[in-house]
């Protein structure tokens, strides 16, 4: 279990580190120059984007399969993947937040930061997220362990957003992540998952086995690489009992 007391840091932790404060995470900011040339507010954003991209590159070089992208997602993908989520979905779960591009979009859509829980495996990203979003709960752990992790004081989430690179994970891991995620979702709630691939990253037999269905809600070319978003939800209330946690 992750101790929620150690999963938060105070805003003061981030004071004085321009990389960690008030930063935007719009993504694809790998412009070599521009930090000094732009107007003040924008300059900070551009520097933060650049440092996020460098951070991503470093993490990707260290663990390419786990990080599964060489740069943070762009603003267009963040807007798309959060487009169906609003305040009434609180609390909301986010998997694989990286530098927090989707987190920022969720907050921009009116979600109370205190109603967000982020699950991030990479220690560097987790500490960046704690500094950047001090009111958000950040759990440094694998999403594979969601099945046994207590969240939201026992409340169920109204939606989940995933930036995980499911295509580079073994099927067993994907099964564990989906099972654990849906255990924390209310009936009717969906998991929003993006992919760079041509179809849903969860294969049809696995969806069927878990009693889930996937619908593509859109795609964007304003992302590098272009990406699609799928809404994955339970086919009906009934298949809950078919989820592997009940079957094993
Ligand atoms: C493709 S990146 C996406 C990051 C961010 N959502 C974005 O779109 O810019 C995948 C993220 O998932 C994290 N990750 C990979 N495997 C994970 C796991 N098993 N549990 C939690 N996070 C994981 C990586 O560390 C990385 O931050």
TrEMBL record:
<keyword id="KW-0489">Methyltransferase</keyword>
<dbReference type="InterPro" id="IPR041698">
    <property type="entry name" value="Methyltransf_25"/>
</dbReference>
<protein>
    <submittedName>
        <fullName>SAM-dependent methyltransferase</fullName>
    </submittedName>
</protein>
<keyword id="KW-0808">Transferase</keyword>
<dbReference type="InterPro" id="IPR029063">
    <property type="entry name" value="SAM-dependent_MTases_sf"/>
</dbReference>
<dbReference type="InterPro" id="IPR020596">
    <property type="entry name" value="rRNA_Ade_Mease_Trfase_CS"/>
</dbReference>
<dbReference type="Pfam" id="PF13649">
    <property type="entry name" value="Methyltransf_25"/>
</dbReference>
<dbReference type="GO" id="GO:0003723">
    <property type="term" value="F:RNA binding"/>
</dbReference>
<keyword id="KW-0949">S-adenosyl-L-methionine</keyword>
<feature type="region of interest" description="Disordered">
    <location>
        <begin position="1"/>
        <end position="37"/>
    </location>
</feature>
<dbReference type="GO" id="GO:0000179">
    <property type="term" value="F:rRNA (adenine-N6,N6-)-dimethyltransferase activity"/>
</dbReference>
<feature type="domain" description="Methyltransferase">
    <location>
        <begin position="92"/>
        <end position="188"/>
    </location>
</feature>
């Amino acid at each position: 279990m992750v101790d929620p007391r150690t999963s938060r840091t105070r805003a003061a932790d981030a004071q004085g580190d321009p990389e960690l404060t008030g930063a935007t995470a719009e993504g694809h900011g790998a412009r070599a120059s521009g930090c000094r040339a732009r107007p003040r507010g924008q300059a900070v954003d551009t520097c933060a984007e650049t440092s996020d991209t460098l951070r991503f590159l470093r993490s990707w070089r260290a663990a390419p399969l786990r990080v599964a992208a060489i740069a943070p997602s762009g603003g267009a993908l963040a807007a798309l993947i959060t487009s169906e989520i609003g305040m009434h979905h609180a609390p909301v779960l986010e998997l694989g937040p990286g530098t927090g591009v989707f987190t920022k979009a969720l907050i921009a859509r009116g979600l109370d930061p205190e109603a967000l829980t982020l699950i991030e495996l990479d220690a560097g990203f987790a500490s960046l997220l704690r500094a950047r979003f001090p009111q958000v709960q950040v759990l440094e752990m694998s999403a594979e362990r969601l099945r046994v992790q207590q969240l939201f004081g026992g409340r169920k989430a109204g939606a989940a957003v995933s930036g995980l690179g499911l295509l580079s994970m073994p099927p067993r891991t994907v099964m564990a992540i989906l099972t654990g995620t849906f255990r924390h979702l209310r009936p009717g709630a969906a998991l929003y998952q993006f992919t760079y691939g041509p179809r849903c990253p969860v294969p049809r037999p696995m969806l069927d086995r878990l009693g889930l269905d996937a619908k593509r809600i859109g795609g964007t070319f304003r992302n590098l690489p272009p990406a699609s978003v799928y809404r994955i939800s339970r086919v009906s209330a009934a298949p809950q009992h078919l989820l592997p946690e009940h079957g094993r």
